Amino acid sequence: MECQDYGLNRTSEKDNLNLNPLQRGGLLPKESRKALFEFSDGYSVCDYCAGRLDKIAKPGIINFLDDLARFIGVDQARTVHGAREGKFAVMHAMCQSGETVVVDGNAHYTTHLAAERNQLNIVEVPNKDYPEYRINPYDYKEVLDIQLDKGTDISLVLLTHIDGDYGNLTDARAVGKIAHDYGIPLLLNCAYSMGRMPIDAKSLNADFVVGSGHKSMAASGPVGVLGLKDEYADQVLKKSKRHAVKEIEMLGCTSRGAPVVTLMASLPHVMQRVKKWDEEVTKTRDFVKKMEGLGGIKQIGVKPKEHDLVRFETPIFDEIANKHSRRGFFLYEELKNKNIVGIKRGQTKWFKCSTYGFSQEQVDYIVRSFADIVEKYQNY
Ligand SMILES: *Cc1c(COP(=O)(O)O)cnc(C)c1O
């Protein structure tokens, strides 16, 4: 049998500016591309393993996890395969089937799936609707009061630090305080924050944090980060009866090979870049202002922006699409001609985008490109 052509060539990142928020924080620095190449064989980190992945000294996974834990303000850190696997592990260790987790109304689908896979009930703290979709921390108190009055067994509270729909930042410290007042631990989902902005789990009142290497920590992945307080280490990092050194929730070993190596190689780069978070936010606000200035474009979600993920409502492009022979595809095609990608094909009513990591010159080019498209179809 002969294999078909899988089309495994990808030049879009080299040749284009990619506005997809999902991809902006996962670009590898040079040193990580080198590490990826050197560790590209299967179990490449396992040459010197004595039974515990997190204790391997060559390459220095043990030192890396120590640095990582300090970087994000937790007592213990482990790598997992992604933010979702981290959430699943915490829920699995902390909750019994049939119990309830309280989550924000902007939670990622993987939060819901992690809960479902653990046979947990989900109660939502609703967002504040159009146009901000804000999560009010104090609504957690209301929801907890109602549920606890009803006798609901709530074993975990979860907050999406930055949600993936609107890029809203919610005050974790306030939510954590409320959860702790009821004696319930907080799991903070930092998939869109850890590695882009500074995270200190302790000051955010988070008992558990999860991060995503391939989304926000400049890693090729799939790889994620799980951080926790010592207080919960016995429960979440419980060891096997049969294989005394192996941690059950980690299924013994998690990320074993190139994915964890790129996360390690990128940590110095990530530690530096989070220091420039304020500049990224300023750049985003300026981008939003210029885009809104084109007319018929409106930023949805909390204003002013506190994160690089921006959601725009774009009736102006939708009106053009209604008359254009290429329909909704016109926008994608116009942008592609200008070497800009990352906005879904066919979508014109709204889109999400991010300028994270772009230079001001590149952002200016992007705004100018949108302006050109608006102008081209002015009297269309
Ligand atoms: C992307 C995303 C995830 C999933 O991250 P993985 O590391 O791929 O599991 C989870 N939560 C939020 C809020 C996200 O944006």
Task: Tell me what the structure shows.
The protein has 380 residues and is α/β, with parallel strands linked by helices. The protein has two domains: 244 residues, Aspartate Aminotransferase, domain 2, CATH 3.40.640; 101 residues, Aspartate Aminotransferase, domain 1, CATH 3.90.1150.10. It has a seven-stranded mixed β-sheet with strand order 2-8-7-6-5-3-4, sandwiched between helices. α3 runs antiparallel to α11, α5 packs parallel to α6 and α7 packs parallel to α8. The chain starts with 11 loop residues before the first helix and ends with a helix. The model has no long low-confidence stretch (mean pLDDT 97). The structure holds pyridoxal-5'-phosphate.
Structural class: alpha/beta
Number of strands: 12
Number of helix segments? 15
Residues in β-strands, percent: 5-15%
Instruction: List SSEs in N-to-C order.
Output: HEHHHEHEHEHEHEEHEHHHEEHHEEH
Oligomer type: single chain
Task: Give a quick precis of the structure.
39% of the residues lie in helices and 13% in strands. It is α/β, with parallel strands linked by helices. 45% of the residues are buried.
Question: How would you describe this structure in keywords?
Answer:
Aspartate Aminotransferase, domain 2, Aspartate Aminotransferase, domain 1, single chain, 2 domains, alpha/beta, 3-stranded antiparallel sheet, binds pyridoxal-5'-phosphate, 380 residues
Could you give the topology of this structure?
Blueprint lengths: L11 H4 L1 E2 L2 H4 L5 H9 L22 H12 L3 E5 L2 H12 L5 E5 L4 H9 L3 E5 L12 H12 L4 E7 L11 H10 L4 E4 L18 E5 H4 L7 E5 L4 H4 L21 H16 L3 H16 L5 E3 L9 E4 L1 H9 L5 H9 L2 E2 L8 E4 L6 H17 L4
Parallel strand pairs: 1-11, 3-4, 3-5, 5-6, 6-7
Antiparallel strand pairs: 2-8, 7-8, 9-10, 10-12
Pyridoxal-5'-phosphate binds next to α5.
